Write the structure tokens for this entry.
Amino acid sequence: LAKTTQPISMDSYEGQEVNITCSHNNIATNDYITWYQQFPSQGPRFIIQGYKTKVTNEVASLFIPADRKSSTLSLPRVSLSDTAVYYCLVGVYTSGGYNKLIFGAGTRLAVHP
Amino acid sequence: ETGVTQTPRHLVMGMTNKKSLKCEQHLGHNAMYWYKQSAKKPLELMFVYNFKEQTENNSVPSRFSPECPNSSHLFLHLHTLQPEDSALYLCASSDRGTDDEQFFGPGTRLTVL
């Protein structure tokens, strides 16, 4: 079963690109990868999801190498409001569907002026 | 505002009490979830309901009892809890199922004395 590992914390400055990597060595072929963002006193909020290669939306990019043992969330030009905890999630496919959802411990990103 | 509401937002209970957490989603989704978020552990999926059918119970102790009377409402009934059950309990919903984007409520902060 996939286990996810991500850095505990990161620091950045406004306007920089931030890359947060999640390691999931035991990921299986049909498992998917998702990233969520969480602010204090709120529930997590979906950022992006993918299976392989690269996915981009209006707020982030997700890079997944061919072996899929890791994934990198890329936040372009961060601002102070991007200060939050970022969670990597692996959705594990079992016989009944994606019923095992394995979250990482979260990466606390601090963006400085 | 994510379209998922949870009540109460804060709850303090003794170990012999019985209480219930309520979740309501206004998104027309078909799947609902209960998660536990404690300070020292990653987000833990507790229960999954798909079209009102419970499809996952991740080895949750029987002192937690979920109920899904319809696709918009989800309850978590609590009885004879332990202090280690103190945590933030998050509800989420998704449209198609567990491989879909989840929308989280703000959570109920539970303290067991």
About this structure: Chain A has no helices and ten strands.
